[in-house]
Amino acid sequence: MSQLQRILHIEDDPSIQEIARIALEVVGGFEVKTCDGGAAGLAVAEAFAPDLVLLDVMMPGMDGPQTLERLRELPGLLYTPVVFMTAKVQSQEVEGYRALGAVGVITKPFDPMQLAAEIRALWEQWNVEH
Amino acid sequence: MNASAEQRRLAALARYQIMDSPGEAAFDDITTLATRYLQTPIALVSLLDDQRQWFKSRVGLDVCETPRDLAFCAHAIRADQLLVVENANEDPRFRDNPLVTGEPHICFYAGMPVHSAEGYPLGTLCVIDRQPRTLDAQQRDTLIRLAGLVEQQLRLRLQLLEGQEREMALSEQKALNASLLESMMVGVVACDAKGQLTLINRTARDWHGVDILDVPPEHWWRYYDLYHSDEVTPLAADQVPLWRALSGEQLTAVSFCIAARGQPVRHLQASGGPLYDAEGRFKGAMVAMLDITERRQIEQMKSRFIATVSHELRTPLTSISGAIALLLGGAGGDLPEAGRRMLGIAQDNTQRLQALINDLLDIERLESGLLPLKLSVQPLLPLLQRAIDSNQLYAERFNVSLVLLPPSAELHLICDAERLLQVMDNLLSNAAKFSHAGDSIVVDCRVIDDQVQVQVTDQGVGIAMEQQSRLFQRFFQIDDSTSRKRGGTGLGLAISKELVERMGGSIGVDSQAGQGACFWFCLPLASSSDRGMP
């Protein structure tokens, strides 16, 4: 199993960007590239070559699911696991996001001390399944 | 006859509307026959009001009325029987009467009272001669029978009048109904049993832009521009509300649209059903329609507003709680003890804000019907166990223990498992909050008919009777100084009530102040046939 190292975080809110970056870099020890929207994410995705994409669902302009669709058009990101981040969801909505191709959903507000562990767990589960 | 009896007699007379009415052949025939049979020159149908006697029919007399105080008839009416005066000149009651001393020189009088249907004497049929006379038994009998004919004639007149009045009242009522229908803001349409349209009131006419057309029900949707609530899909012929009502269906608040040419799309709610006459015969159908376009827009705005506000509130809250958690977790370096305490306070309060936003969003989605329920057959015991497990930590904060008394038999119920757990969370956390340290909270259940009742019983502070009915209202919180510090959003029980009712159940509380409370809810038991479903 390859190591989870590089995470691309696409999120429009600067404060949440910062919290997630600290949670993933300081607490989780990952390398994080933060983008403030779908377009910016698409622009850097291939060059950064993330192991995993953490993608906010509700964003102005291109939203999370649309961004995911466009990411899949990039050859380097055809199989990269994507985790959605969204406000309180119900179990049936999680199923909807999975159907779009997400490996998991992190609900906001998230516990930043647990975020890295949650993402690592989703990563490992995805590795087992693939 | 006393004064009030006379009043009733006059009222009875007035109902016939006969005074000063034109002559009628039927009455004239009777007076003519009377003069013939009784061989007198004069015969009268005399009616007595408060001022005068007036002759509905007269033979052999020119005047049509005389003052009441001169009238022989007044005497006959007072006696209320056949009055025969053989020679008025010798009768002390009449000999000074100007009708005796002057024209028409009455000498002989025989008058038989005629009565109203209720028995009030209204007047007489009388015969008069200018010379003394006697009546034999047969002549008396003839006069009485002819008076009977006058009574029958009067009765016919009354029936005719009443019929006319009924008809008039009916047509007035009809006109009133019609103007009411026309002036209503509600659209009303109706058809007969064959599906021929019979009514489209003004409001409905304005909405459709057309009046009654001679089109069969299959084409109503087309001619009246009827669409589904999505504004674009035409209603199938058999989905048209009036068609459904005509097919025997009772409709309540059925939503659809009218998209008439040149008008904005109108969203409507239709209620109605088949029409039956008094004998239960099918007569057609009627539908009343309410314009809910504006209400819908307001509701949509409200929903969007709440969704937006919730999102906008949550986003900064995510950062605040995230920052606090990172600091408390040491991601920002070591913290002094006072700093930790203050961050702890900040963390508690962001959690309260989050709970409030979640509850608000839940209740909004419940009320707008946007919260779908996934009903399925569930074994009850594992659900209750999960509820106890997930509230254990919370209960320990209050030093309260949770006890589950398992049902004697395995019970299955129909519910949305996640939502049932949400209800249990509310009841258990409330019970813990309002318990005394060291108390136990007991969860048990029992079967009542085709329902299962789950009870959460605490030994806490209890609820006064006058507060119990308001307990399940939104934002209601028991108002005393001690309960304020127990926290909560005031929405938990309102949400629980909505959830339980949406799952086809009921919820309530039994309590007395100071003696603990028992919160319960009932949900339908799954029948053995339901158990086959997933």
Q: What does this molecule look like?
A:
The complex is a heterodimer of chains A (130) and B (534). Chain A is α/β, with parallel strands linked by helices and 130 residues long. Chain A has helices spanning 14-27, 38-48, 64-71, 91-99, 112-129; strands at residues 6-10, 31-35, 52-56, 82-87, 104-108. A five-stranded parallel sheet of chain A has the order 2-1-3-4-5, sandwiched between helices. Chain B has helices spanning 3-15, 25-38, 72-79, 98-101, 137-183, 202-208, 220-223, 241-246, 293-328, 337-367, 380-397, 417-433, 465-468, 481-484, 492-502; strands at 42-48, 52-59, 65-67, 83-85, 108-115, 121-129, 187-192, 197-200, 226-227, 251-258, 266-276, 282-291, 376-379, 401-404, 412-415, 440-448, 451-457, 506-511, 517-524. In chain B, the strands form four sheets. In chain B, strands 3-2-1-6-5-4 form a six-stranded antiparallel sheet, with helices on both faces. Chain B has a six-stranded antiparallel sheet with strand order 8-7-12-11-10-9. In chain B, helix 9 packs antiparallel against helix 10. The mean pLDDT of chain B is 89. The chains are: A alpha/beta (130), B alpha+beta (534). At the A-B interface, helix 1 of A face helix 9 and helix 10 of B.
Average pLDDT reading of chain A: 89
Strand order of the largest sheet of chain A: 2-1-3-4-5
Task: List low-confidence stretches of chain B.
Answer: none
Strand content of chain B: 15-25%
Radius of gyration of chain A, whole Å: 13 Å
Order of helices and strands of chain A: EHEHEHEHEH
CATH architecture of the largest domain in chain B: 2-Layer Sandwich
Name the overall outline of chain B: elongated
What structural category do the secondary elements of chain A indicate? alpha/beta
Strand content of chain A is: 15-25%
In spatial order, strands of the major sheet of chain B run 3-2-1-6-5-4
